[in-house]
Design a protein that fits this description.
This protein is α/β, with parallel strands linked by helices. Helix content is 33%, strand content 24%.
Length: 580
Amino acid sequence: MNPPLATVAALTMRFGASGPPALDAITAAIPAGMVTGLIGPDGAGKTTFIRLLAGLLHPTRGTLTVLGRDPVTQADAIHARIGYMPQKFGLYEDLSVIENLRLYAAVRGLPDAERAATFARLLGFTGLTPFTKRLAGRLSGGMKQKLGLACAMIRRPELLLLDEPSVGVDPISRRELWRMVRALADDGIGVLWSTSYLDEAEACDHVLLFAAGHMLFDGAPGALTSRVDGRVFQVRGIADNRRAVLRRALGQQGVLDGVIQGRHVRLVAAKDAAPIDLDALKAGPEAALVPVPPRFEDAFLDILGGGPGGVSALAQHMEPKTPRRTAVVEARDLTKRFGAFTAASDISFAIRQGEIFGLLGPNGAGKSTTFKMMCGLLKPSAGQALVDGLALGKSPGAARARIGYMSQKFSLYGTLSCRQNLEFFSGIYGLSGARRKAAIEGMIDIFALGPHLAASADTLPLGFKQRLALACAVMHEPAVLFLDEPTSGVDPITRREFWTHINGMVERGVTIMITTHFMDEAEYCDRIALVYRGAVIAIGSPDALKDEVRTPETPDPSLEQAFIALVARSDREEPSGAAA
């Protein structure tokens, strides 16, 4: 391993005298010229670790050295030699791209004579040259992250600290961001990259895995992945309901984890467990259990003791929906114009009852605009959005009573407590009396919100914020649920918990429309509409989209590869189209 740029020994951090430490006796090193991945569940201590290295927090105990200096007593000297990109977008949204760069140049003391060349280099490196006059607040998610990286690089750092830089970024922008960071590491810069995307962790040179303030692993990603060799399988040839097969599999004693992968179900068996009982899965007469190579994510779930299981207490709490033969959600030639700009054009699709329908697309493609029209948050310029047979434009109140909505950004009332948010939203959705009380208590129990009821929503850990948001969206048992990137930024275990609830609700007849940038999540969808330049460029099951791009060179494409290839194909077919 290359020489370390930062070292910590027995590093401990406490916030308050009582309770467990945020970090407990961590010993690690961050090498030069390499990308070190920092991973772990929510609350593992990742952000605390990065802030300690940046000199923004002082440790309770232990020692740490960054670039040969002590961050506690020599923070200013360290700040001049590192780059730091925080988890939340830390730029000024009412300033343009170039104005943000000028501001950071002044803050970081970049000499006037060097600014023009530095700005040109960073704008070219990040692909932001055509957007220098655009306000930062009007950039897409991927472009915001690229601008954040450029500002962190105003003065060439020796150590670059990136806290969840790819959250909310589409697969294409995520690849570009990764390419840029890899180039920096190849140039000798040490990079510490905190991430909830485990495919990114798998591509790192070195990985630190934290859980509840403890370090569980320190080494190459492949060394962790190898711990589950021979214990990963796919159930293939499933006759009908993949969700039911997954639920039955997760109920077996020796199954640690399971996810849906298109038409297949992927399972991780516990070490020394009895063989998986294929017959008990009731997957059909053609079903087979096929060994497959392990992924880093399989080993991650294994070392943490497995996923949350396959039975949703939320779904069990709900009454089954009355079966319907007609479409529950429809988009009919939906179009949205903002002045002369068309964000969405003639978008049409229909969603059946009990279907998970995914809306995917690059940042800025028109996906969120379409989604907001479908759930009544934006009025279309033309066309119709129908929910449960009702047009949102003509019967907004009646239609909205049938839907639940969870937004991309935490949209609850941050100054209200957890309980106050539950009470407020139960009233908004028309619950009253005994039904309202039962719904609130049910959500508290199902989502384990009891210890957090008095806490303001803004202070909740991210995983509990998302649980509270989902609880508020479903307490009235809607027929249709709109989920806009519901698991953005949360760890894989919390994502699995959410998908257990989603799968369970669908089996009860709830219809779900979802946006996501996690391609492994999109595999759970029954069908996907891929939106680009304000139009639907492909629609079908995850496997159908993969089949569209299958070639002799790529005989078994992933959904991410299909996403990127279909967007590239659209660019070739219509290179002059305006991005939405």
